[in-house]
Amino acid sequence: MLNIDQKSQVVSEITEKFQNASGVVLADYRGLTVAQVTQLRAQLRQAGVEYRVLKNTLVRRAANEVGVEGLDTYLEGPTALAFSADPVAPAKVLMEFAKANKLKTFKIKAGVLEGKVIGPEGVKALAELPTREVLLAMVLRGMQAPLTGMANVLQGPIRKMGYALEEVRKLKTAQ
């Protein structure tokens, strides 16, 4: 049992984590074996995500201090929180873990994205987003497409002139 000083220290730690994290995912971890929890923690750590099981009342206090509203309805039962500077990483790792292990009892409760609460559907949509690198590649490809098209258009007349000169050369050599 924590005393008041310890509780206030934990609340300040959680508050700091909420402030520093771009993405937070709340999950109901019931039904996981010790081996599965260890595996999940390793995967989260590899993705740069911090995973902690915290008391709902302390999380509620910290969320109120940071100004995150609407989280109270999701703070029922056992709750684990995954904090990350990358807003997509915790959602992606937790959803992939649940799919890979075919977990029926492990549930995503909610998420906090840039200080706004999103429901489980929002977390699922977030997890389905392509990675940052893929998104950047898509943007770059979109920016390059017009330039490539323009280069092809500008090369057209030069190419046609080359074909015409080649035909003239063939005619002259044939004569």
Automatic annotation (TrEMBL):
<dbReference type="Pfam" id="PF00466">
    <property type="entry name" value="Ribosomal_L10"/>
</dbReference>
<comment type="similarity">
    <text>Belongs to the universal ribosomal protein uL10 family.</text>
</comment>
<dbReference type="InterPro" id="IPR043141">
    <property type="entry name" value="Ribosomal_uL10-like_sf"/>
</dbReference>
<dbReference type="GO" id="GO:0006412">
    <property type="term" value="P:translation"/>
</dbReference>
<dbReference type="InterPro" id="IPR047865">
    <property type="entry name" value="Ribosomal_uL10_bac_type"/>
</dbReference>
<keyword id="KW-0699">rRNA-binding</keyword>
<keyword id="KW-0689">Ribosomal protein</keyword>
<dbReference type="InterPro" id="IPR002363">
    <property type="entry name" value="Ribosomal_uL10_CS_bac"/>
</dbReference>
<dbReference type="GO" id="GO:0070180">
    <property type="term" value="F:large ribosomal subunit rRNA binding"/>
</dbReference>
<comment type="function">
    <text>Forms part of the ribosomal stalk, playing a central role in the interaction of the ribosome with GTP-bound translation factors.</text>
</comment>
<dbReference type="InterPro" id="IPR022973">
    <property type="entry name" value="Ribosomal_uL10_bac"/>
</dbReference>
<dbReference type="GO" id="GO:0003735">
    <property type="term" value="F:structural constituent of ribosome"/>
</dbReference>
<comment type="subunit">
    <text>Part of the ribosomal stalk of the 50S ribosomal subunit. The N-terminus interacts with L11 and the large rRNA to form the base of the stalk. The C-terminus forms an elongated spine to which L12 dimers bind in a sequential fashion forming a multimeric L10(L12)X complex.</text>
</comment>
<protein>
    <recommendedName>
        <fullName>Large ribosomal subunit protein uL10</fullName>
    </recommendedName>
</protein>
<dbReference type="InterPro" id="IPR001790">
    <property type="entry name" value="Ribosomal_uL10"/>
</dbReference>
<keyword id="KW-0694">RNA-binding</keyword>
<dbReference type="GO" id="GO:0015934">
    <property type="term" value="C:large ribosomal subunit"/>
</dbReference>
<keyword id="KW-0687">Ribonucleoprotein</keyword>
